[in-house]
Amino acid sequence: MPIRPSLAILAGAVLTGVSAFLLAEPVARDFIPRMETQAAEAIEAAGGTGVTARFASASGAPSRHPVLRGGEALAPATRTRAAMPVARWPGLGGARWTTGAPPPQDASRLARATILPPSSTTHTSHSIHRVASVSYPHS
């Protein structure tokens, strides 16, 4: 008796979901605290005394977008230097400040540190403009 394709797809999806949960759970448990510890060390090494990084959303859910707090008394350049090591980590969505954001020129330096290199960004930008400029014949 042949197996129906929809049943095979459903079984594969369930197996994938269960195995992902079971394999990720032991690793995920201390992932955020480990990231926060590494961020604290990197921030301190960059001179960001009093700056902390929190890898959680406002509701407390784990997040790959760290929120930096503190360091309001630090010079804007020091705050930017403190944020750079965290913002440049692969896989993170960049770092942002809760208060006392750096001035625009430093903020743009921080933003550039969290995105692709300029050549890749330019290439991607040109690709998007090319796709957006395609005109389709009207029916």
Report the helical percentage: 40-55%
Beta-strand share of residues = 5-15%
Read across the widest sheet, the strand sequence of neighbours is: 1-2-3
How would you characterize the largest beta sheet? 3 strands, mixed
Question: SSE layout and pairings?
Answer:
Blueprint: H1 5-28, H2 31-45, E1 52-56, E2 62-69, H3 76-87, E3 96-97, H4 104-113, H5 118-132
Parallel strand pairs: 2-3
Antiparallel strand pairs: 1-2
Helix pairs in contact: 2-3, 3-4
Short description:
55% of the residues lie in helices and 11% in strands. With 139 residues, the chain is mainly α. It has a domain at 31-115.
List keywords for this structure.
139 residues; mainly alpha; 55% helix
Please explain how this structure is put together.
The chain is mainly alpha-helical and 139 residues long. It has a domain of 85 residues. Helix content is 55%, strand content 11%. The protein contains five helices and three strands. A three-stranded mixed beta sheet has the order 1-2-3, with helices on one face. Helix 2 packs antiparallel against helix 3 and helix 3 packs parallel to helix 4. The longest helix has 24 residues. The C terminus is likely disordered.
